[in-house]
Write a structure and sequence with these properties.
The chain is an alpha/beta fold. About 40% of the residues lie in helices and about 15% in strands. The protein has 10 helices and 8 strands. The protein is globular and about 50 Å long. The strands form 2 sheets. Strands 1-4-5-6-7-8 form a 6-stranded parallel beta sheet. The relative contact order is 0.10.
Length: about 260
Amino acid sequence: MYSIALVSTLSGLGRDRVLTRAMEYTSGDYKYLPGTHILSANGCWWGKCKFCVERGLKYEVREVEDVIREIQVCQALGFREIFDDSGTFPIGGWLDEFCKQIKNIDVHFSCNMRLVDLDYTKMRRSGFRMLLFGVESANQETLDRINKGTTTEDIKYLIKASEAGLEPHIAIMVGYPWETDEDSIRTLKLVRWLLRKGYAKTAQASFYTAEDGCNESQRKYVKKIYGVWKYPDFWFNKIKDINNVDDLKYLWLSIKKGVSECGLK
């Protein structure tokens, strides 16, 4: 527990986290606990995906120094990992300056990111851990129809991030009204391949809902990504990635989540 005297001296950002008992929040994709969220930007710099709540929002970015100050407060409070939940994390010169400043702070950093060509090695050396990529689909027609602004070939940037030592988490969707079962299975196979090869460390699937409807018959594919547990190379890469107790705990929590959600069927 923090003393009343300490709470009174904290800035608003630090005081809020103490009073809301943020140190007790352990869900989400944190590997290093305790973890907490921040927001470096409002919206997404692409902001055109048909399904997204960030679509059309003005993209507003905080000053690098302001974000760094908040991270320093979090680190001083004892948080070990920070996830930036901006629709898409800023890139360009902003990201370059951020990498320079955060590398001096002892904290693990994760964020949402689009499939673009970046200096992922520099990001890893600066303290980035997990990047959440919205892959969405393995079908180019679908990427075009949801106005994702990416191609199926852009998966190479996820592989580049993984080879740089980062830990990609990927998100896909099924249930697009125009997709067939074969289309959904193609996306499912891509996710399993990325997980089996160790390029993606974790993954999630959700069901598409938008103004043009959905394909309810494909809801069965949401949990089928967990079927990757049947492949030996998936486990080989999982075991190979264990370097410390935090890695082992994180793997165990992931296994329990998979068992509880779908029974690994």
